[in-house]
Amino acid sequence: MTFTGGSWHFGYSVSREELADEAPYLSIHSPHGADLDMVKIFSFNRRARDGKHLPISAFSVSEEDNMPISFDLTGKTAIVTGANTGLGQAISVALAQAGADVALVGRSSMAETEAAVSAAGGRSLSIQADLSTLEPVDRVISETVAWTGRADILVNNAGIIRRADAIDFTEADWDAVMDVNLKTVFFLSQAFARRLITEGKAGKIVNIASLLSFQGGIRIPSYTASKSGLAGLTRLLACEWAGKGINVNAIAPGYFSTNNTEALRNDPDRNAAILSRIPAGHWGQPEELGGAAVFLASPASDYIHGIVLPVDGGWLAR
């Protein structure tokens, strides 16, 4: 990759004055793609750490696909739980497209996700694990590390739901949901973070929360409790681990078109009621969640800790 139209090169420190004067005439030539206008890659409002200069490497792009390096996950290894279908599958594919190797974790076959990751040009490893217990927690981490030698990103996506009026809800259903949605998330995050902290490495944890992290809902008491708890856990872990180089954040998906919402979408009245509340006017497609996951897993989010990011078509803004 070469820079023309100015005096800049890798390792050169760019003053703000040079940035304003030369960038409009600067382009990047990549052997893998079309020339890129520097102005389109970064904002002149970006602050230098010393208030005066920025390294030219801060504005470089990936030569593989013209992806800004701040979003590039090449060389990273991600673990995605509940990766066999739906949102977990879409997140796995998005991370692979960004360059990550992806360990796919779940109870059932990951063949479909494996094929999708491969079609996206990525590599995957399937790990069969029942996350309703803590038994597989250490194994998920160790098998991932045995595969690539590292584990940089953890996406806690696996979750279950049980429906009944609060007055009739059983202890068994309460415990089943809390075990998968909150207990295992905590201990898997703990195992992941312990390894990073011991080795002095940075990492990213992305929890998949819910609109029920913000709202009450009906007939899903343990699910609402688990997702509200997950939002709180995200903030707590961010407070404890941010100083150790580990970012902990969450995504709160809105109404997405997945197997879990098929019954709602097939009910004309419920479907119409939901769509009338979504400013975007349509159900989310699983791939529309991928960008948020890549962002929170990438260097672009290095100074973001403890947020719960809604990806909901505007539902919560209503």
TrEMBL record:
InterPro entries: 2-deoxy-D-gluc_3_DH, KR_dom, NAD(P)-bd_dom_sf, Sc_DH/Rdtase_CS, SDR_fam. GO terms for molecular function: 2-deoxy-D-gluconate 3-dehydrogenase activity; NAD binding. Residues 76-254 form the Ketoreductase domain. SMART domains: PKS_KR. PROSITE patterns: ADH_SHORT. Keywords: Oxidoreductase. NCBIfam families: kduD (TIGR01832). Belongs to the short-chain dehydrogenases/reductases (SDR) family. This is Putative 2-deoxy-D-gluconate 3-dehydrogenase.
